[in-house]
Input
Amino acid sequence: MTLAIETFHYRLAHPGYCAIPGAHPGQMVGSGQLFKRHESLLASPDPRRLDLRASLLDPFNHYRVKVFQQHSKIDVLVIADLSASMSIPGGATKLQIAADFLLSCAQSAFESGDNFGFIGCGHGIEKKWLFPKGLRMGRVQELARDLSRVRSGQGGNGLFQVEPYLPLRRSLVFLLSDFHFDLNRLSRLAGLFGRHAVVPLVLWDPAEYADLPEWGIVKFQDSENRRTRTLLMRPGLKRKIIEAYEQRRDRLRHGLRSKGAEPVFIEGRYEASALTNYFLQRVV
Output
């Protein structure tokens, strides 16, 4: 993990539902700068917002005041896949990159005044990785250190059991995984994508495909069942492996887009500017 914490800016397409003021457009009226509608002085007794022109035009001769859309805070959660494939050593383990993102996301949320939480998904949902909301930066730093040190192989079924642990109201959810599972299982996450604004972060290590040697003996190991296979690497085989990854990229992008989520592929290292650009190009 880097010492300097990079932050990014995010925004939502739909207004927040929290009554507590924050940095995002909300559904409630109150203090704000975005005009929402006129109401009678009796319904909204604040003479400072009296609109004389609207009052003169009112057919019932009622005093009319302006009401504004109040900005609200939202819940921001990071869901991290802790399966065995995420801890494969490479240029940097995927969980090391996930730890970097965890710090960046937490700092970004705190600067916006939002709630922040984290859920780690291994074989199931373990209590030590369950922090649905209310984390503080000191605890996030401890959590990031623990996350970067995970080395034991685990199953990834917890990813498909996470929905009951999420907030009921719409939240911003970052889903971190290498998605090295049967993509038909994405249908089991339908409730997650349907209720929340989900940003899938796909963590791929170039050492797994793009950085393979042109020639040489290479030993591959299945991270889940620990089976190994030794192959004579050659240009034609390397090209097939790269093509297989590109085909999976297309399938993954198509599957996530069908659920209304545009994935962000992170390969090599995490850069906060990539997330800022993502939200500048679209809202979730």
Remarks:
- The chain has a mean pLDDT of 83.
- The chain has two domains: 21-72, 75-279.
- Helices lie at 52-57, 94-111, 137-148, 190-195, 235-257, 272-281.
